[in-house]
# Entry
Amino acid sequence: MSSATAIEVAVVGAGAAGVGVALALQRAGVDSVVVLERRRIGESFRHWPREMQFITPSFPGNAFGQIDLNAIHPQSSPALFLGREHPRGKEYARYLERVVEQFRLPVREGEEVLRVQVSPGAFDLTTSGGSRRARFLVWAAGEFQYPRRPSFPGASFGRHNSRVTTWERVKGEPVVVIGGFESGIDAAWHLSRLGRRVVVLDPTAPWRKQKEDDPSLTLSPYTWDRLRRLRRQGSAARETKVQFLAEAVTGIEETSGGYTVKTARRAIRTPTRPILATGFSGSLERIRELWDWDRESGLPRLDGATDESTRTPGLFLCGPGVRHRTADGLAVFCFVYKFRMRFAVVAATIARRLGRDPSRMLAEYAAANMIWDDGHSCRSPA
# Structure
């Protein structure tokens, strides 16, 4: 690839993770950074159902040393920019665009990474815009655009919640929602407010009680509040709009006039395609061979100090797919306020290897409470 454009760092994905880590790299003195985005900045957020909002609240608090939970940079605030506590997807995409513009971040929209080849000390990228060679590669392509479909028979008859543009277009009732975690409750909430009867199916029954203190592993307070309001409304009206069943779906069949969703205990007829609130597979399958995979968890193995691939030196993961094994269990970085705490770690590691001094960036991110270093990541040269 002698004709490839040479850069120091290529970041794949211009969502919250990609833009955020690129800004940290820029602040750490890494000038040759390019963010490659196959469509538009904040593309995943643009595909959220119109009514979907952040469950984490946005609130400006920079003057007190704490930043907005949904901010990706110490000097920005979605709440201040948007004037909204719980931003919708397209609104948050506007915030990302504004941050890119403000800090003059080099984002190449419409440039999709088609192939990644590893060379000694470099990554050769074949993209829709040509060829690029990067010393380091940060994978931040996210999850929302890669829906997970369950394996039971007839799953293809379901519509994944990420493919719903607005809940107003989901007609007929009852609407069957498969999955009772955040996306499932969000679907039930909006559908019930539109007057639809809803049946939510999940054998783990996450709506029954809060089992963990980590909102990545249980329902968030925002969602618990919605559940309480649903129950109060149902009690006041003496009519249950949302029925929660702790049952596993065994299959979906297309029948005359609609669909039948089956569990071991019952068959539920519905005139509309069942909603699959079954999570996301993520984008790592596109470069699966570049990671070691943990058989038990199905997660990529990362260096706990740097979020670097244990198989491919120079390849880093950034975003909601990051997981860490800790003495207390599993640390899950699936919210913006969590995975942003690894931006500085990744940026500092790369900056040091390039001979740059990231101390100023580290001080700024530490002051804003934007570093989770597991005790050693940012203090020892990589």
